[in-house]
Amino acid sequence: MQNPTGSQVASTSSRTPPHGYKPVRRFLLNDILFTLEITPNKREARIRTNTCAHPSPNNAVYNRAYLEYNISMVVNENANPIEKIQSIVKDQKGLLLTSDLRKHGIPRIYLSTLEKQGQIQRIFRGVYSAAGIMVDEMVAIQAIYKGAIFSHETAMYLWDLTDRTPLFYSVTVPSGYNATSLKAKGVKVYFVKRDLYPTGRVSVKSPHGNEIKTFDLERTICDALRSRNQLDIQLVNETLKRYVRKKEKDLDLLYRYARQFRIQKVVRETIEVLL
Predict the structure, then answer these.
(1) For the residues 115-130, what does the mean pLDDT come to?
(2) How would you write the chain as a 3-class SS string?
(3) pLDDT tens readout for residues 20-76
(4) Which residues of the chain does CATH 1.10.10.10 include?
(5) Domain 77-135: which topology?
């Protein structure tokens, strides 16, 4: 194929594109006009690119779907990509992950478009939010780091075992977990053996009302005593005193967890003094 200057233009397919494609979306990137076209039955899609000021089918490069980033999946949605992204952001209370785009087959070019238009803003790598809203950082952290469960100081605050608002977030991850970038964000990371990692895991509401993962009351007490040398002693004492005053405490469960973590003696002695 030749462009208007007579030079050869590379094409990704030697086949002549079939008739019946209808343009549904155009966007400009690096002075190249991209046109997304679909068939009436919405089963196939292609992208037409053109570097001319006035594009025409005679000098365009045709690329048959199915494209590397699976553009064909876009036509399976009733809403157009921009509307679909806006719907995802609304459903997720202002939060958007790049993995959401992959899940719905939406090309990342639309992410760049919305960011340039000021509709979304980048929070962390792979995490965006609707522009002008306060992002729930706890949700954002767990969206990126699936293995991070809020624990220790943060769990104490979530369970009203302390009045201290954490200056940083604390999480527990399984041993072997790569927490380098998590620590770089100022998060305090605790490690635990993989077989003990899920013990007491529950879902609760963050201070912003969004669902997050943490550990239950009894696991939090075990963590406080198990990691007492890494915690402020006054915080540990306040946590223990508040726990024994709670009506919903479960001492049988606490002692069972203590056996699992092999801290039965310190847990039993500490609790019996406070009761």
Answers:
(1) 85
(2) CECCCCCECCCCCCCCCCCCCEEEEEEEECCEEEEEEECCCCCCEEEEEECCCCCCHHHCEEEECCCCCCHHHHHHCCCCHHHHHHHHHHHCCCEEEHHHHHHHCCCCHHHHHHHHCCCEEEEECCEEEECCCCCCHHHHHHHHCCCCEECHHHHHHHCCCCCCCCCCCEEEEECCCCCHHHHHCCCEEEEECCCCCCCCEEEEECCCCCEEEEECHHHHHHHHHHCHHHCCHHHHHHHHHHHHHCCCCCHHHHHHHHHHHCCHHHHHHHHHHHC
(3) 777 777 766 666 777 777 777 665 677 777 654 444 444 444 443 333 334 434 434
(4) 77-135
(5) Arc Repressor Mutant, subunit A (1.10.10)
pLDDT of 230 higher than 90: yes
Angle at 259 between CA 170 and CA 175, to 5 degrees: 40
